[in-house]
Amino acid sequence: MASAVNESGTKGWLVSILELGAWFGVLCTGYLADKLSRKYTIVLAVIVFCIGVIVQTCAFAPSSIFGGRFITGLGVGSLSMAVPLYNAELAPPEVRGSLVALQQLAITFGIMVSFWIDYGTNYIGGTGATQSEAAWRVPLALQLVPAVILGIGILWMPFSPRWLVNNKRDDEALQVLSRARRLPPDHELVQIEFLEIKAQYLFEQETSVIKFPHLQDGSWWSNFRLGFFDYLSLLRSRPTNKALLYRVAVGSLTMFFQQWTGVNAILYYAPSIFKDLGLDGTTNSLLATGVVGIVMFLATIPAVIWVDKIGRKPVLISGAFLMAACHLIVAVLTGLYHNSWHTHVAAGWVACVFVWIFAIGFGYSWGPCAWILVAEIWPLSVRGKGVSIAASSNWMNNFIVGQVTPTMLDKIGFGTFVFFGSFSLAGGLFIWFFVPETKGLTLEEMDEIFGSAGMAASEQERFLAIEKRIGLDAYNDPDTDRATPDHELRKHEIEKV
Asked: How many domains, in total, are found in the chain?
């Protein structure tokens, strides 16, 4: 019994050490994304990731594997925050969800490919004791291929227009928006979007001067302290900060529930789970695991196409309830037949099918939509830090799930599925009752639905003065006091190009 527990603990650490590194990497990335730019932060993360992969591939001791996975995790965590942030800031609101969802589609494609690579390399040099070290070194080394492509390809991509405005490079920001929207720089929609970004930036700068006049000398230490206070402002429960604290809760809890649906328990330990469900032999369990990758990839495609039409909430809620149902059905079947799968083959296959349906449910909903949501809800001044907090919640909970799952499968068996199913259900209810719909809104308009529109009178007056000073009031909707872009016109122009 002690050896079984020790084996489960070692397996848990081997899997979860990467997530621990990713958690730390995410926390560092918030500052780096604002300082270096989203673009160069991605390049740096790719370099760190490649170092970790090389250490693992060349390892000749367990400590090197653990160390390499931790370094790889630093890069993975940084990319998980910087890439959706970059996508969200460059995309127009009408297709922002689809473009951010493309990241998840790429992830599920990578999962699918990796499952089948593992299946193929499993036969290098035979099986069992005769298996060659290449069976595990080759799939590790192949991680370098997409990483290098990303690291080189991003160098030819534009900077985020919002980061450019933050760094007083307005002309470049306007040109990036013009090229990204395929409209001339003086087009109304481009001008509105640029001026909205500019107004938000100026407002946040003036707010910073008012709050921290002693930290405006531009020194490294002052900028570091301003960044620290930005993090602190996200966590303070004061009347002026309630909207930010609300966003922290939405972002962090969305990522909490994403991980406690048990998706990574399925992905990390799928071969073990399928063996427990009656699929004997490494070949059968790896084949069943490969199907998980295929169905999850295919299920992500509808999210890319329809998430901006249907909305975030319906997709997340339906996915959560579907995953909860799958967990509970697998739990019932496992509880009834876990000691007699060999005489209830049909029940074993039914359980496998519901694991695959679970993968479909996650693939179209919480996989892409959770990242879309946490990438788009933050104000400009703290967006990098806000996304890093939400992403750190994802990776810390990912780490915990990876740690406890082997022990849970050993100790409570089918209760593992009941446990994750309950959290899936709770996640759906959380989205239903506490998370607003963000479909089709500009990043600046998020302030209104998260309660920041009710600013103090002086702040409201100051914001309107900024709009007037930069000329945004010329585009005001005649029925309101605030500048609001014509979404129908924007959609028409998007469809035209």
From this structure: 1
Question: Tell me, what's the pLDDT at 190?
Answer: 87
- DSSP secondary structure string for all residues of 354-390: HHHHHHHHHHHTHHHHHHHHHHHSS-GGGHHHHHHHH
Return the structure tokens found at 411.
Answer: 């100790």
AA letter at 381 = S
The answer to whether 257 touches 330, Cβ cutoff 8 Å, is: no
Mean pLDDT across 89-116: 76
d(C-alpha 77, C-alpha 398), whole Å: 11
- Does residue 49 lie in a domain region? yes
Any idea what the Cα angle at residue 446 is, between residues 224 and 490, rounded to 5°?
A: 120
Task: Tell me the C-alpha distance between 69 and 77, whole Å.
Answer: 12
**CATH number of the domain where residue 126 is located:** 1.20.1250.20
Confidence of residue 17 (pLDDT cuts 50, 70, 90): confident
DSSP per-residue string spanning 43-56: HHHHHHHHHHHHHH
End-to-end CA distance of the chain: 65
Cα gap 298→111, rounded to integer Å: 12
